[in-house]
TrEMBL record:
<feature type="transmembrane region" description="Helical">
    <location>
        <begin position="6"/>
        <end position="33"/>
    </location>
</feature>
<feature type="transmembrane region" description="Helical">
    <location>
        <begin position="134"/>
        <end position="162"/>
    </location>
</feature>
<feature type="transmembrane region" description="Helical">
    <location>
        <begin position="219"/>
        <end position="236"/>
    </location>
</feature>
<feature type="transmembrane region" description="Helical">
    <location>
        <begin position="242"/>
        <end position="261"/>
    </location>
</feature>
<feature type="transmembrane region" description="Helical">
    <location>
        <begin position="94"/>
        <end position="113"/>
    </location>
</feature>
<feature type="domain" description="TRAP C4-dicarboxylate transport system permease DctM subunit">
    <location>
        <begin position="7"/>
        <end position="418"/>
    </location>
</feature>
<dbReference type="Pfam" id="PF06808">
    <property type="entry name" value="DctM"/>
</dbReference>
<protein>
    <submittedName>
        <fullName>TRAP dicarboxylate transporter, DctM subunit</fullName>
    </submittedName>
</protein>
<feature type="transmembrane region" description="Helical">
    <location>
        <begin position="54"/>
        <end position="74"/>
    </location>
</feature>
<feature type="transmembrane region" description="Helical">
    <location>
        <begin position="315"/>
        <end position="345"/>
    </location>
</feature>
<keyword id="KW-1003">Cell membrane</keyword>
<keyword id="KW-0997">Cell inner membrane</keyword>
<feature type="transmembrane region" description="Helical">
    <location>
        <begin position="398"/>
        <end position="422"/>
    </location>
</feature>
<feature type="transmembrane region" description="Helical">
    <location>
        <begin position="174"/>
        <end position="192"/>
    </location>
</feature>
<feature type="transmembrane region" description="Helical">
    <location>
        <begin position="273"/>
        <end position="295"/>
    </location>
</feature>
<dbReference type="GO" id="GO:0022857">
    <property type="term" value="F:transmembrane transporter activity"/>
</dbReference>
<keyword id="KW-0812">Transmembrane</keyword>
Amino acid sequence: MAYVPVAIVFLLYFSSIPIAFALFAATLSYFTFINTGMPVDLVLQRFITSTASFPLLAIPFFIMAGAIMNYAGISSKLMKMADVLTGHMVGGLAQVNVVLSTLMGGISGSANADAAMQCKILVPEMEKRGFNRAFSAAITAASSSIAPVIPPGINLIIYALIANVSVGRMFVAGYVPGLLMCLALMVTVSIISNKRSYKPSREKKATLMEVLLQTKESIWALFLPFGIIMGLRFGMFTPTEAGAIAVLFCTLVGFFVYKELKIQHFPEILKDTIYGTSSVMLIIVAASVFGYYMSWERIPQSITSVLLNVTESKVMMLMVINLLLLFMGMFLEGGAALIIVAPLLVPVVVSLGVDPIHFGIIAIVNIMIGGVTPPFGSMMFTTCTITGVPITDFIREVYPFIIALLVALLLVTYLPGLILFLPNLM
């Protein structure tokens, strides 16, 4: 009976009930019908008090910063910068697509937001340049998996709160895996583009003067993610305060530097912020209540015991966990999957001597790859819906990119020094 709420969560989720309501309904049913020793009002109290966390303020701030950037013209400046850097390469706009996702990681922080934006901006232009539409949708979905790994991705904050680790260290740990994913996708794009004769978007490599001029124009957009990390490194502000500073910085740049942000944009910005924050926070508080039930029944400890009985080899355990997380990522949206599996698996990996920061990056990269993978990957549905590409065509084009991302995942998993080098400098 202790595991009935877990079954209820999956039953409700696959019945198209939003994951937040599925989690809350499962917990409420447990404390109402199975374990009647606790008053239900204490469960409701837990639902409310779980929002009273200062670090959670970072989420609405960074969501608002991303919304402001879209109206402030910062996204277009980053696209021009990506074109100057990689437009001359084989695959042209497909390479730009990958680099833009990497640059946007510190801005949108959301894979689906990044995929939706690039479907509208880049995919039509790629079609005009002779790229297959299904290929364009596939590289857009695959590259969007980079965005939540690059700071200040919302999933980095969520994991840090669940695992009780430093948000600042999680931010810094995200750079190397994000760049590895970017490099793996760029190599794959180059191989496919050579075979299909996809042309560059620029006739020749940008001159040093062109790069410098575009850097000057885009410097304010590029400064934000690096400014956040440097501020955290030197103790100028906390990750939560960094979100508020990001909002202020984007607003000033949009008004006074790029001059594209207008007062009339703010109702839409606030609406985007409220929608984005409410959906994330509802999942977080529902998962907190669900975690209360799991702690009551000692489910994390039971799963730790079961997995350690299967194997005590760190290498094999990480492989098993990778397969589990990839499977979860296919069915659940990134943040929801992370909230469910992190409390269960962190005790397992810590008992094997895996650094929780390292494991957090493994989990996030895993779940993001799952979001691209058929049959239920959320980024797959986002890109196919917006571009009108049949899912069968998408699957045919996306598998080389999934293989490339899996290679990056193996490096992230089994070379912890790569991930922990920068956090250890803090």
